[in-house]
Design brief:
Length: 132
Amino acid sequence: MSAAAAFTLRKEERMASKRLIDKLFRGGDSHSLVSFPIRLVYLLDNRGDGDTTAQKQILISVPKRCFKRAVKRNRVKRQIREAYRRNKNFLPDLDEGRTLLMAFIWLDDQLHSSETVEKKVVKLLQRMSERL
């Protein structure tokens, strides 16, 4: 991966498959970390043959009960996405045939600065990479 490509967030890196989302939340094998106001749920999974998904996929969720206005929910999602994009190099390289599924879930009903959100995302990524 080139240096410029290391700081991108391609469409393949975003989790959209209902099957993968169900596996992440209903599998029983997933793990959870919290660095308030963000919770990280992750699962290290084996990919099936012929599966062309990226090795690391993310999902970002900001519940409507936290922010009624979509503008605020979108702002938080943008902050988390940017923090992940800039700091995904903390994640270890995975073996061929393995995929890492991650879900970032917002827990607070207050907005936070981008610097705070980035610190929390970095902390979660570092703690998760230590456990892998």
